[in-house]
Structures are given as structure tokens and as C-alpha cells.
Specification:
By secondary structure, the protein is mainly α. It is built from 14 helices and two strands. Strand 1 and strand 2 form a beta hairpin.
């Protein structure tokens, strides 16, 4: 069980499962039909492949860095895994394109641009450069780093499924208040988790002069002056969405459970934790959110 858990966490497959769960939650909560299974397969593969590209092999990993040690020990398997993922993305992407209905050319360009916004933002996060022309690496902007991560995730699991739904049914995309507030809730929730995750990387970020919230302010100030206010804003945004949705009391409780757990986890971070703990608990809150949202969407 331990080896299987390490493989799921350190191969970034856990992120793929989370992305699929959040995308399903989005459609059920917003009362949209689910997409083809192929869409969720492509979302899983794209998410895992993206994170695998972002982690480089360290030939001399520190013994205390369990993830780096695991990646170095399984680099051949991970390379093969990447090739399989890219093959599925290429073949599946072409087939999914075939499933999409034809639309007028101006609308086609608009839809492609809308779908491309957040994948492009994700690649800019880790860096794109052209020698002698420019270099963009949004990750270096420590203050904005968690909000960019939150935007990429929220866009991928909320905005892209929403655009593809309208494309599949040849409906002109029109932003509704419910969609806006639920998307903002996703963005805020994941951004807060990204801030908490930076606690793990405090030493490395400090040495690299990456001015994250934790590096600039310290743990205690981050929790009370940033995480707590953002959590209250997130609850307010969620409450506005729930008011617009007119859901029942049990569904409202399910929606609020992840926010409560987030606050409990945040104020329990004073102890030193392992990388696996952060991956399983901090990122696992996204899976908890998805499960609660799916249940609320089905009953509410």
C-alpha cells in the first residue's frame, strides 16, 4: 500500500484524478451534462504530463527529499509513462476534435482562443523563452505565484469544460452569475492551498530569492494576515453562489465542509511535515472539495 501510494503521489497521477473529479463537480454543480469520457481521459493525461515536465530529475537527490529520491529511482518508468501520456493526448486530442461540431470560422477562432488561455498560462508559469528575444517565467513573481496556480487549475476544471459544453451544443458562451461565482470560488480555494503548499518549499524558495508570501512574512503572519482573510473572502464568494443556486440545507453543508477543513489544516501547519503529507493532505483537500461538490450537485 505504501509503495502504491508513493507511486500515485510522486508520479503526479494524484493530480490527474483530482482534475477529473473537479471537472465532474463543476458540471454537476452548474447543472451541465457531463462530457464524453474521452474529455476526462485527456484532462487526466494532460494534467499528469504537465506536472511530470515541471519536475526535473536530480541525479544526486538529498536523502530527506523523498519525492526527488523516488523520481530518481524510477526515472526510466516515468519517461515511459510520459511517452504513453503524450501518445494518448495526441491520438485522443485528434479524435476529440473530430467529435466537436463544425462552427463558423470566426466563432471557431474565438472558441480555440478561450480553450487555450489557461494551458498557455500554465506553460508561462514554468517558463517559455526565446534566446535573445524574451524570457517569461511567471513562477518567479512570488506574490502572484499561488494565484496563477489557482487560475490555471480553476480555468482547466471549470472554464474549459464550460467552453467545450457550449461548443459541443453550438451555444454562444454567455457568462452567468452562478458560473462566475463558482469559478471564483474554485480559484480562491486552490490559490489558498497553493499558499499553504509554499510552506513546504520555504527553505528552497528563500535560497533562490523567490519572494513567496511565506518567505516575505513568515508562517504566522501568512496564516493570520493572508490565509484567514482569503478564506473569509472565499466563504463569501461561495455563499453568494449558494444564494444564487437556491440549494437545500444539506447541500449547503456539503459545500462548506471543504472550507472548514481548509481552515483546520491551515492552522495545524506549525509542525514540520513530509512532502507526502503535503501532497496527500493539502492537495487532497481539492479531492475532498470535488467529492462534496459532486454529492451536493446530485442531491441539490
Amino acid at each position: 500500500m505504501k509503495k502504491a501510494l508513493d507511486a500515485i503521489l510522486f508520479s503526479n497521477s494524484f493530480y490527474g484524478f483530482i482534475a477529473v473529479a473537479l471537472a465532474i463537480e463543476n458540471n454537476l454543480v452548474l447543472k451541465m451534462p457531463l462530457h464524453y469520457p474521452l474529455f476526462y481521459l485527456l484532462l487526466f493525461c494532460s494534467t499528469v504530463a504537465f506536472y511530470l515536465l515541471s519536475y526535473r530529475y536530480d541525479p544526486h537527490p538529498l536523502k530527506g527529499n523523498k519525492r526527488a529520491v523516488w523520481i530518481n529511482a524510477h526515472k526510466k518508468q516515468l519517461t515511459a509513462y510520459q511517452y504513453i501520456l503524450f501518445m494518448i493526448i495526441a491520438v485522443g486530442g485528434l479524435f476529440y476534435w473530430y467529435l466537436l461540431p463544425s462552427v463558423p470560422f470566426p466563432q471557431l477562432i474565438l472558441l480555440i482562443l478561450l480553450v487555450s488561455i489557461f494551458p498557455v498560462l500554465g506553460f508561462l508559469y514554468y517558463g517559455i523563452s526565446f534566446p535573445g528575444i524574451f524570457k517569461v517565467r511567471l513562477r518567479s513573481f512570488g506574490w502572484f505565484k499561488p494565484f496563477i496556480i489557482g487560475a490555471v487549475w480553476a480555468g482547466s476544471v471549470s472554464f474549459i469544460p464550460w467552453v467545450l459544453f457550449h461548443w459541443m451544443h453550438k451555444i454562444t458562451p454567455v457568462l452567468s452569475p452562478s458560473f462566475i461565482f463558482f469559478g471564483l470560488h474554485n480559484w480562491m480555494f486552490i490559490s489558498i492551498l497553493a499558499i499553504l503548499f509554499d510552506i513546504k518549499d520555504y527553505a528552497a524558495d528563500h535560497n533562490q530569492s523567490l519572494k513567496t508570501f511565506v518567505v516575505r512574512k513568515g508562517l504566522r503572519k501568512v496564516l493570520f494576515t493572508i490565509v484567514l482573510p482569503l478564506s473569509l473572502i472565499g466563504i463569501s464568494v461561495l455563499s453568494t453562489f449558494l444564494f444564487l443556486r437556491e440549494t437545500n440545507l444539506f447541500a449547503i453543508t456539503l459545500f462548506l465542509v471543504p472550507m472548514g477543513l481548509l481552515c483546520l489544516v491551515a492552522f495545524g501547519l506549525s509542525k514540520r511535515r513530509t512532502v507526502a503529507w503535503y501532497l496527500l493532505v493539502i492537495d487532497g483537500l481539492m479531492l475532498v472539495k470535488a467529492i462534496c461538490g459532486i454529492a451536493a450537485g446530485l442531491i441539490g
